[in-house]
Design goal:
mainly alpha; two-stranded antiparallel ribbon; 8 helices; 6% strand; binds protoporphyrin IX containing FE
Length: 241
Amino acid sequence: EFHLAPKHVSFSFDGPFGHYDKQQLQRGFQVYKEVCAACHSLKFVAFRDLKDLGYNEAEIKAIAKSWPIKTPDVDPATGEATTRDPVPSDHFPKPFANNVAAAAANNNAIPPDLSLMTKARHHGTAYVYSLLTGFQNQPAELLRRFPDSKTPSGLHYNPYFANLNLAMAPPLTSDGQVTYGDDQPKPTIDQMAQDVSAFLTWTAEPKMENRKSAGVAVLFFLIIATGLAFMSYRQVWSGVK
Ligand code: HEM
């Protein structure tokens, strides 16, 4: 009973006629890039996919520059992996060299890849939003009834997380943590959380709009076809008394 269902939050892409708001996806990408990418990869997303968000080729190349790609070669002088410039077909690389390094940096938890996160959890978009805005102190009632449940040091209480205690510290901690363009909404924690949740919905389902418009077309066709079938039925049986 201490684990909560995701909050209600609405998005431009809700419902059968929903569309992504490209401005929002760009803001969400900015939050990912400036905050989440320090720990989380997006291994199923290629830089060139960002054209869906409205970036052109030059912008995509400039964006990709922030993510040097490791090559299989090792620099003989330092023993470190060498890197090359990314090309648009490269995918977003992992921020840590391997899982051991990732766990070592995060209190023994490996930050999961976020590409499909909104599909992997129930009500994924609302879940990610709720998780980001849901960090809080443990309820006194919980501690009173289950004194052993005190959040261990290094973990963070979040009632939207199934285990209640999460190895991720609140990533969005102050309004204005990311700077948006002047014509954009104010980057409050709530706004940034909505934007990055929208962005992660796009990474998990970039073709959502095609799926929805195909669904609407299919229903339209089926309604017409049902009408025609009914009229044929009347016609075929019209002579039978
Ligand atoms: C887990 C999102 C930033 C470290 C997660 C999960 C999500 C998420 C959805 C999975 C929760 C689940 O399994 O249900 C985000 C977003 C971020 C962000 C949207 C940016 C706004 C960060 C940063 C760090 C981090 C900056 C590291 C400093 C972790 C770790 C876990 C995790 C270690 C695993 C937690 C556990 O299993 O206990 N994050 N994250 N995250 N994140 Fe983040």
